[in-house]
Amino acid sequence: MTTAAPSAQIRAALSADLPAAQQPTWPDQAALADVVATLESYPPLVFAGECDDLRDRLASAAIGEAFVLQGGDCAETFVNATADNIRDRVKTILQMAAVLTYGAGMPVVKIGRMAGQYAKPRSKDTETREGVELPAYRGDMVNDFEFTPEARRPDPQRLLRGYHSSAATMNLVRAFTRGGFADLRHVHDWNRGFVANAANARYEGLARDIDKAMKFMAACGVDFDALKGTEFWSAHEALLLDYERPMTRVDSRTGDLYNTSGHFVWVGERTRQTDHAHLDFVSRIRNPIGLKVSDKLAPEDLLGIIDRLDPRREPGRLTLITRMGAGRIREALPPLLEAVKTSGSMVTWICDPMHGNTFESASGYKTRDFDDVVDEVRGFFHAHREVGTVPGGIHVELTGNDVTECLGGAERILDEDLNKRYESVCDPRLNHQQSLELSFLVAEMLSAR
After folding, report:
1. Strand, helix or coil at 294?
2. Rounded average pLDDT over 149-159
3. Whole-model pTM?
4. Which of 18, 159, 210, 425 has the most CB atoms lying inside 10 A of its own CB?
């Protein structure tokens, strides 16, 4: 059980006076203090025992006995935290997991970039349009995407709205995944409501195969109670320390600290400085944690961070999420794999094939090419095969909607198509069809492994 501890106890444990990158400049510190105090009084969104269970699942992925599928929005928004949008994201991840499980014959650990991904790091503190300079949009938990002085003013009240939106999302996800909606005997239902296309047709064929397998097992007298629900975990980048710290509580069983804003949190490329507050924060909590790893990180620096975050070399504790780009991963990843393998660390390796493949299209849209995404995943598997290590999962920005944000895929989204349904407020996401396509390709890579 995770309980709220006296705030002074937690503040003392997390009070390292270290610089923190990518934090907003709150104009009203008194208002911020009131919000932080309110967050400290709110119930946890997840519990310590759940986090421990996820650590065990990630440990299985580290040794090749499971595979991690982590997916969801680049940046969640309050206006899109609707039942339909949440349902379609969950359905997409369930479909992808079914493809991976059936195609590769192994359990899939399902983690959503959901119920907390309301903040984003930015390359610049300000944004300029037509000579007007305003604070950058840092996610709905900080300010609004609309380009006006009022909208871009950081407002700590948004931290409370972020909590309530995350709580509502978690409630609905739990209902979907534990109330029978995720029952594998309903695999056809997950395809309903999506536009007919080649990926959905292929999924329907797989669903029919799963039906046959279910009927065979039923005829053999198999008890299907275990299939009525599924485990589904929440994750987000631990970026806004004014939100993550007050959501950190003491576990009454052990006295350890857990961040109760999500089961799994990670530190991004822009906040992994060894002498800064973000690494210090995640080093003090018992949640399973992640670290984004680019081609800019030297092996010796990565080993130093591992010593800091996982000194006990605990399986499932640390997940390394690689983001290197299709053109770099085959060269840049093997030295890191070799170094970590030699050190004896039992980390879980996950491929983020999105962030290293972003570019601006000729029409001016921030986009990614589906072929580059697939090629980076292939490079990830190739590097692990070369070194003799385990490719443990993928981390994908996706939506259940039929957006046109990433180029390519079976229906060949072109540059001139991007403006049709470009809805992301930050990074481009794979749409439903592209997400399903990717899962079939990854299942083939897993089978070949």
Report:
1. coil
2. 98
3. 0.95
4. 159
